[in-house]
């Protein structure tokens, strides 16, 4: 794979369906490496790599959801030969929704969109984390318990990931949703104690699809999916191999 937007860690050429995984703010494609390994060879998994991090460090990080969704959509056009499901966590969930809308507009719709740990677009709040200083931004990330605190406190590593992290928070906190709803079904998953995605706000995704809607909750906070990886893997396997 040569497209800078996509990583295919475990190619599954004979799989009947494809899962596209979109990471959270500050995240990167390798976050989904364990999921890709667990689903292969039954599902062909693509993980999205946003600009401004890891092997795309030399590229400027994008600061709007629209620019990110446009880039991801363009990259996926060469990979729509199989039934495709979009799966995004946190900021990635919003991107999955926006990419889904763009693919539907092009006449190449996804089979389903799977939302994880993100309130519905109709439940946006006026967060201002992207305007805080570096310490404030890092304190927010540390509170989500999804990043090793040693990484957050290492001065050299901070210099590397802070620009992309701030760009991601700028994108998600200034986002205004595109007109919807999706035609594709939405399947939502969330932790029952996630302060950034209260269950009623996740339930509100039901208004953003003309298809079926399901909601599954798990014990845990914003990164519940790490502790419940087997259950998430099983849900995605069943969805992508169900024959739609």
UniProtKB/TrEMBL annotation:
<comment type="similarity">
    <text>Belongs to the thioesterase family.</text>
</comment>
<dbReference type="InterPro" id="IPR020802">
    <property type="entry name" value="TesA-like"/>
</dbReference>
<feature type="domain" description="Thioesterase TesA-like">
    <location>
        <begin position="20"/>
        <end position="240"/>
    </location>
</feature>
<keyword id="KW-0378">Hydrolase</keyword>
<dbReference type="InterPro" id="IPR029058">
    <property type="entry name" value="AB_hydrolase_fold"/>
</dbReference>
<dbReference type="InterPro" id="IPR001031">
    <property type="entry name" value="Thioesterase"/>
</dbReference>
<dbReference type="InterPro" id="IPR012223">
    <property type="entry name" value="TEII"/>
</dbReference>
<protein>
    <submittedName>
        <fullName>Thioesterase II family protein</fullName>
    </submittedName>
</protein>
<dbReference type="Pfam" id="PF00975">
    <property type="entry name" value="Thioesterase"/>
</dbReference>
């Amino acid at each position: 794979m040569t497209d800078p937007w996509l990583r295919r860690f475990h190619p599954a050429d004979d799989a009947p369906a494809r899962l596209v995984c979109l990471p959270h703010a500050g995240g990167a494609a390798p976050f989904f490496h364990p999921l890709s390994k667990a689903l292969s060879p039954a599902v062909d998994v693509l993980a999205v790599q946003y600009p401004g991090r890891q092997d795309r460090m030399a590229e400027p990080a994008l600061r709007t959801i629209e620019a990110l969704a446009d880039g991801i959509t363009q990259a996926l056009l060469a990979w729509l030969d199989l039934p495709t499901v979009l799966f995004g966590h946190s900021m990635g969930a919003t991107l999955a929704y926006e990419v889904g809308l763009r693919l539907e507009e092009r006449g190449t719709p996804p089979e389903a969109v799977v939302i994880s740990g993100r309130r519905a677009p109709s439940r946006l709040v006026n967060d201002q984390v992207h305007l805080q200083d570096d310490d404030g931004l890092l304190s927010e990330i540390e509170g989500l318990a999804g990043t090793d605190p040693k990484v957050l406190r290492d001065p050299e590593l901070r210099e590397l990931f802070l620009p992309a992290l701030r760009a991601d928070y700028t994108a998600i906190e200034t986002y205004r949703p595109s007109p919807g709803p999706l035609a594709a079904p939405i399947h939502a998953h969330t932790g029952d104690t996630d302060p950034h995605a209260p269950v009623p706000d996740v339930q509100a995704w039901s208004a953003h699809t003309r298809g079926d809607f399901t909601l599954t909750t798990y014990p845990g906070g914003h990164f519940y999916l790490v502790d419940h990886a087997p259950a998430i893997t099983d849900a995605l396997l069943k969805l992508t191999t169900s024959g739609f």
